[in-house]
Amino acid sequence: MMEILLEVQHLTIAYPQNREVVRELNLCLKKGERLGIVGESGAGKTTLAMALAGINNQEQTRSGTVTFYGKQRGIILQNAMTCLDPLMKIKDQLKEVLCKSRKCSKKEAYKQAEDLLEEVGIFPAKQYMESYPFMCSGGMQQRINLAMALAADPDLLIADEPTSALDLSVQSQILKLLKRVCRDRELALILVSHDRKAVSALCQRVCELKAGKLTERTGAEKPGRLGNTLNESHGEGEVLILKNLQKSYGRQNVLQDINLTINTGEIYGLAGESGCGKTTLAKVITALTKADAGEVRAECVQLIFQNVYRALNPVMTAEENLREALRAKYGRRKAKSPWADQKIREALEMVEMKADRGMDRPAQFSGGQLQRLTLARALLLEPKLLICDEVFSGLDETTKEKMKALLKNIRRDQHLSILFIGHDLETLEELSDRMGVMYGGYLVEEGNAGALKNDPWHPYTKKLFRLARGEQVGADSMTPEKEGKSDRVGCPYAGRCPYTTKRCEEECPGSYRQKDLYGERTIRCFLYETENCERESSDIWMHSRV
Ligand code: SF4
């Protein structure tokens, strides 16, 4: 049986005016165990972390006991820079801790400091030894903090929000590093964070701090966007399954081997440049076009298009346009019934339009209002999946923002799944739970929307996000149309990709599944072929190789 390293009994911590943050808390941590403590901000996580680390706070009153059976506790905090002395070189800060804790000479401490920097992945260590903290990036500073904590040879490491101030890609590196260091040193870890997914990925046990009490959470968190409840998927089961879909127009392959699933209540963003096959895909899903091969399983789909001016009958009033949709589905009689009147009122309400606008004709509405009307018409038919094809194009920024909020509300209230097709990556990422990127008829990358934005893997996805940020990228001579030719061999992106090899020109990459910080990533690029990634995929997760 593993030995107990830390035992907390009946711990109560209160601030002035009897504001209790921790109440009668009991906790037990074994040697080498990794425990995650999650909770919302203000739940008292940092107060608890400090108490567990044995750091006193004069403002607090504490009762109960925290018994540590090990030799040393180390702590790393959220804001790495504030933990380092800005006026001291890294080597001097490390040497100071080493001389004190390991009782060694300055010369020995220098060598050990260098080893520690290498252990936390800082290369070349010699160069960083001579740096000041401000010369290092946030991720580097956090690595240095970890090296400082390790300098005291702790048997328990307490990490309080160690990655909150870092971007997604660096977060993943730091968490991976923490896991490796804990494993190599047989170190126990208490990871305190609001980031449930990261904690679940790293820790063997997860507890939630709520109203001063710790409750054990069973089962791992589902992968998804971190810290943004709006963007989390709300449902279960699939509303759309596409398998090995193929479609061509003459010699032009428009859809090639598309596999895609959308879950209930999920918003899936589909990106890609014009001509990559996005709209054809929408048409195939809604049966407006027939696929040449493959399987489409979809439940109650409605589609709204970009051109709202042609979507409604101009000679009918708004209400007549909506009633017409009901007539097509339920028949003339039902479309004239009080039930239909009620449904039309509700649909207009859902899209936040006044019922008295029902008598106006399309020409009397603005672009944004027309978009709401087409949305109301789609919602009338109670779809399970709504496909929005470039619906924000042509709308001004304010209207776009209102439409985004409206879609999010409708998804939440109606439990609706949305396939949102667009080329504005920022909007797609903001709205979506998961995102896919199409190129030359292929789905080249798919994964959690935030993960794709912060750590794109495919060279094309990377380029799209760089363009979206306004960065300069090289011009391409090849168009997706050329790349979709049926006689083309090799990777569809080979003509534009800076990483092209001979193999890329001769062979088309398969679709490889890998694990990233937020779940699963599917990618069509040899750089992420399973054999190439074996070492990383057997670890916790991987990140971009380009
Ligand atoms: S398979 Fe080759 S050409 Fe295609 S994206 Fe990957 S590296 Fe580039």
Please explain how this structure is put together.
This protein is an alpha/beta fold. Among the domains are: 224 residues, 3-Layer(aba) Sandwich (Rossmann fold); 74 residues, no CATH class. 34% of the residues lie in helices and 25% in strands. The chain contains 19 helices and 20 strands. Helix 2 runs parallel beside helix 5. It is globular. The protein starts with a strand and ends in a 9-residue tail after the last helix. It binds iron/sulfur cluster. The site of iron/sulfur cluster has 12 residues, from loops.
List strands and helices in order, with pairings.
Blueprint: E1 4-15, E2 19-30, E3 34-38, H1 45-52, E4 61-68, E5 73-76, H2 90-102, H3 106-119, H4 125-129, H5 138-151, E6 156-160, H6 168-185, E7 188-193, H7 196-202, E8 205-210, E9 213-217, E10 238-249, E11 252-263, E12 267-271, H8 278-285, E13 293-298, E14 301-304, H9 318-330, H10 332-335, H11 338-350, H12 367-380, E15 385-389, H13 397-414, E16 417-421, H14 425-431, E17 434-439, E18 442-448, H15 449-454, H16 459-468, H17 480-483, H18 502-506, E19 512-516, E20 519-523, H19 534-537
Parallel strand pairs: 3-7, 3-8, 5-6, 6-7, 12-16, 12-17, 14-15, 15-16
Antiparallel strand pairs: 1-2, 1-4, 8-9, 10-11, 10-13, 17-18, 18-20, 19-20
